[in-house]
Amino acid sequence: MAASTLLKFVWLEVTGLCNEFCDHCYADSSPQGTHGAMGPADWTAVIDQLAGMGTVDVQFIGGEPTLHPHLSDLIEHAHGAGLGVEVFSNMTFIREPLWDTLKRCGAKLATSYYSDDAREHDEVTHLRGAHRKTRANVEKALSLGIPLRGGVVAVREGQRVNEAAQDLSSLGVREIGGDRMRAFGRASRGAAPTIGDLCGHCAHEKCAIGPDGDVWPCVLGRFLHIGNVRERPLSEIWGGPRMSEILADIRAAHGDGVQSCTPPQFLPMCGPCGPCVPSVQHCDPREAGVAAERTTIPTPA
């Protein structure tokens, strides 16, 4: 049954608005995006439902979640409900009150970082000054004692991904993962997404909720509509027949053993990663026997 596993982790995509316009954005976020149909009361109701379902952690994402006018309130509410909180941000737009909220609530931060070279990073994000702002706010987060991890996504040939990881490490970031560009959203170049393009971990103890209330098996699997939290309680959606259908389709595409090795709950997107984040090493069972030296982004000392 679909409800036989606990819903441990949920991505809360509170907005489709972003101040960057990355070519590879799986969510197709942009400066033209909106906060969607979900208002603050809708999100707090979802958070309360998650707490009642025994969910452990949530990650606020976007778009750029720091552009949502009620993000601090939502973080406070999730923290008060006993949920662990992480915010996945491009770290270019963090105002002082949000820093206070993050620190007070024990929230974590995560960010994408594309190069140690400012021009290359800014070319990926299509936002002038993005590298400078992100780097400065990484330093500020660490100085405030806010846990932060970085992800380096390879999106173009010759990109300085190793140097990007080394730069983050030099700033004091200890958890640095890597991934390749995924063929979803703008990165698909118009190709229709398929279940075979996913890793197979989707819907396993996790799901995502979008700005309009749509529930997906993960942030990349938004083409697989499970339900909408503005129409039905999340517990009914999680345990409903549509979830069972999607789980069956995922198993058919990837095999029964694909969920035997689960990535960390805080990955911005499910693996298999190339390379995997250091704490996982191999999140795809089919790659479990591959030697560790295939990793191309160094693990910080």
UniProtKB/TrEMBL annotation:
Q: Where is the 4Fe4S-binding SPASM domain?
A: 201-261
Q: Which CDD domains match?
A: Radical_SAM (cd01335)
Could you list this entry's UniProt keywords, alphabetically sorted.
Iron, Iron-sulfur, Metal-binding, S-adenosyl-L-methionine
Molecular-function annotations in GO: catalytic activity; iron-sulfur cluster binding; metal ion binding
Pfam families according to UniProt: Radical_SAM, SPASM
InterPro entries listed in its UniProt record: 4Fe4S-binding_SPASM_dom, Aldolase_TIM, Radical_SAM_PqqE_MftC-like, rSAM, rSAM_sf
Which parts of the sequence belong to the Radical SAM core domain?
13-147
Superkingdom per UniProt: Bacteria
**Coiled-coil stretches noted in the UniProt entry, renumbered to this chain:** none
The protein, known as? Heme d1 biosynthesis radical SAM protein NirJ2
